[in-house]
Every structure is written in C-alpha cells, then in structure tokens.
C-alpha cells in the first residue's frame, strides 16, 4: 500500500498553531522517503480561508461545518477519522498539544490504529514510520513501529522544525462527515487566556524555576522579576506545588509539565529525578543552589553555589544592564 | 447513575529505570509499585460523585500482578465493589479499554473516571479508546468538575489558558493532578471494606498495536561548569550566557 499522510491542523485564535506547522513540516520532510501525499485537515467555518495560505501540504481537506467552531472531541474525531479513511491515510499526524493528544487517541480508537504519543524523533525505514517517544516521564525512551496500518503519531511541540515555505495556494476539497448523535454531547464553551498574558512554562523560551530553597511563596518574587527581564515564564518544583506555594500549572517535571526552553534557570531546586526528567532537554541549564552537592548541578551547563535570595536579584540587575547595553 | 474508577499499577516516579536484557523492556527490579498518581484523583472524584448521587461505585484494575491490597483500599475510601481483570502478556490502551468496556457496558449509564495518563507509558489514550468502545464523550485532563443534575461543567489547563467544557452525563473524565484532595481511609472504613465484594477474573486482552524495537536511557548532558560561589560569580554567568551559550 502506498504511503499517505494526513496532518491535523489545530486552529487557535483564527490561525493554524505553530506546533501544527511543525507536524506538517515533519510529514513533508519524511515524504521524500515514504512517498505519497501530505494532506492537511482543517475543521470549522474558517477552514477554507486558512487552507489558502497553507504551504507545504499537497492538498487540504476542509470541514467547514460551523458546529466545529467550538471544539468537541467526539465531533472532531469523527471528522478526522472520516478524512483519514477517505484519503487512504497510513500515517495521521498531530501535534502533542492538549487538543492534539486528545484527538490523536480518539482518532486512533476510531480507526483501530496504533498510536505513538508525544514523539521526539521520527524516521522512515522500509516505507514505514519509526517513532521515538519518552516514557516514565522522560527517564527512558522507546522506539516503536506499528504492527500494521494505519499509525497515529503526535509530535512533542518545540522539537520538530516547522515548515518554512512561502504561502501558496493549496487545492482544497470539502468533506461533510456523518456525525453521530452523541458527537456534540460535550463541547468547549470558553477559553480564558492566562492572566496578564503570562507565558505557559511549556511554551516559553526562558523558564526561571524555583524550589524549596526559596523558603516560601514570597521567595518567588525575585524569580518573577528575573523572568520578566528575560521575557520568560516562572516554573516550580513539585515540592513547592505540593506545599501550595505555586499553582500546579507551573509545575515542571513528572506529574507536571515537560519543558525544553532555550534557557532554564533552576533556583533553590535540588534536582529530584522527576524534576530532571522534565527539564533535561533544555538547551542551557543554569543552577543556583546553596548545596554544592545538589544533583541539579550534574545536569547544569553553568552552576553557582550560594544563596538564591542574594544571587537572583544580582543576576536580574546584571542582565538588565547587559540587555540595555545591546540596545 | 453508576460510577466507575479505573486504577493502574505503576512504578513509583522516583524509581530508576534501566533497559532490560532484551533491550526493549524496562528492568524494574527493586522498584516500588503504587497506584498511578493521577488515578488517585480520579478515584477521589468518583467517590465524591458516588456520595452525591451515584447508585454504586465500581473500582477496576487491569493487569497481571496482584492488586487486591490497593483495590481493598479503594473500597475503604468509598467504592462499593472492586474487580481485578488479571491478564497475561503486554497491554496497550486498545486492549485495556476493551476489557474495561466489557465490565462497564452492563452498568450504563455510567460515569467513568481515570487518570489523565499512567506515569509509566505516558500515552494518555485509554480514556479516548474507552469512550469509543462505550459511545461516551471524553473530557480529559480536568482540574475542576461541577455537576448539576445531569449537566457538568469542567475546566482544564491548555497551552496558555484554561478551557471550560460543558456537556451532559454520562461521560468519561480523566483527572489532572490537583482535581481534588484524595482522602485517606479511616480505620472503621478499612474494617468495613473487608466485607465488600472484591473479585479477580482472568482475561486475555488483545495485544498492543505497536511493536517496541528498543528502549534506551536519555543521553547524558555534556559536562557543565561551576562558575563559583556567591554574588561574585554572577558576572561570569552573564558573560557565559551572552558570549558562550548565546541565549540572551
């Protein structure tokens, strides 16, 4: 059977998400080895308009049903599974966002397909897709292959390069799926953006994280100032989330978020195995801790031993000066 | 409305993983096994719904290793009955959800709670597969849940915001950490749980649809550099970030 890719393009705020363009990019790069077409799928009344600016897909299936403007997992899964069947897709690609992971599982279930979640590496071998994915919260990785067709994959955001191509007209076709009676039983009715446009730790390019070494919730104030200077987000260890100093949304590590920013600054974090698993793929790691033997220093690119309460404000001041000097 | 909670068995998140002799499966020798942390929140939410309006709460575990102590604890916390579906061979979300669905189908309409993912495989698709088996909507990763009559309103964290999802019961919910504060069973409840029904049935699950080719540990990071102690080291750090790592 010839290979065929279907890529789910998640829409947020009237545009296709960057992470979906990463999935489109990877599907397009693998096309050289796998052959076949790369077909995009877009849901909702804006789908036809969005498809016109979409480079990289060979063509796009649009489901312009306005009922899909509010996300319903079951309806989106019905539509995407039908598109997969009608296009003869052998690999169905998603970004491993909250919505993408949900939908990937639901589509795999409907197609009776194998599902490789949150992949960090994809290669083609003998016409088949081989995927590498973290397990045990990143403490190990497995390489997997589907026993048959089709295969559903979701790709970890910020790992794969998005497709860079100038926008060009893409051929579209409309699909009117047959929805089941229960497909709209649960729908997303509201999206509240994070207060003050605060960045999500999982998406920020710089993360300044704090642990128990900060002594209390008020110890995070200097970290927030440092994060602000760097345009980053504030993260937290599990210990301080469990103590109620920070919300769970900020937790980095297993049972929290996996992050891989350009710069990760760990302040007063000793480096429990669960925390290290969640941030070890960061490009540069800075550790500041009063205990020179703390395990965090084993993964750090740069380490400073000392009192976080004194060093962080000094670092913030020095960075302000350095950044101002470049302007 | 019946209520169901599904509980998985996982190695503690602090355990060290090494590749087994086949190079494909983890060597978990010496690891402590616990109830999947997210499933603890699922169970608590199920008990709350059972207390508010449920007719009966069933706790289910699918897996090969004896889980009766954990199921007995779920009975002490408020489940009415418990069952372990004892399996042989590897399990994937498709196989697990088929076995779960067999048990839940006769209980419909039923609202089902699971953790958002198990902390060993980290797939997070059992809820979606179960929803497909049972024809129920799935709302995943919930951090709050309000139920009024047969309507619900749930919220969950998504990238850069919080989503509200509304719908009608019955439904499948998967729990995020922090959904509630899981209770501890008291002595009286532990005693009472000894009399509640707990069964173990042997089942065979369809095999996983993925072949594992290899298991490896993440690569070590290149050795880092200690820049010194105290405020005096800050200047060196700024220089390194600017000129060496070039991340500013």
Walk me through what this model shows.
The complex is a heterodimer of chains A (327) and B (248). Chain A has helices spanning 18-34, 47-52, 73-87, 98-111, 221-230, 238-242, 273-279, 296-299, 308-326; strands spanning 5-8, 11-12, 15-16, 38-43, 59-63, 91-95, 114-119, 121-125, 128-135, 140-146, 151-155, 171-174, 186-193, 206-210, 233-236, 263-267, 284-289, 302-305. With 327 residues, chain A is of the alpha/beta class. Chain A has two domains: 5-184, 3-Layer(aba) Sandwich (Rossmann fold), CATH 3.40.50; 195-326, Rossmann fold. In chain A, a hairpin with a 4-residue loop joins strand 9 and strand 10. The longest helix of chain A has 19 residues, at 308-326. Chain A is elongated, with a radius of gyration of 22 Å. Chain B is of the alpha/beta class. Chain B has one domain: 3-Layer(aba) Sandwich (Rossmann fold). Chain B contains six helices and 16 strands. Chain B has helices at 37-52, 68-77, 93-104, 126-134, 187-193, 234-244, and strands at 2-6, 9-11, 18-19, 26-27, 33-35, 57-62, 81-86, 110-115, 138-142, 144-148, 151-158, 161-168, 172-175, 198-202, 210-216, 225-229. In chain B, the strands form four sheets. In chain B, strands 9-13-8-1-6-7-14 form a seven-stranded parallel sheet, sandwiched between helices. In chain B, strands 10-11-12 form a three-stranded antiparallel sheet, with no helix packed on it. A two-stranded antiparallel sheet of chain B has the order 2-5. The longest helix of chain B is centred in the first third of the chain and has 16 residues, at 37-52. Chain B is globular and about 65 Å long. The mean pLDDT of chain B is 96. Chains A and B meet through helix 3, helix 4, strand 7, strand 9 and strand 10 of A and helix 3, helix 4, strand 9, strand 11 and strand 12 of B. Strand 18 of chain A pairs parallel with strand 16 (225-229) of chain B.
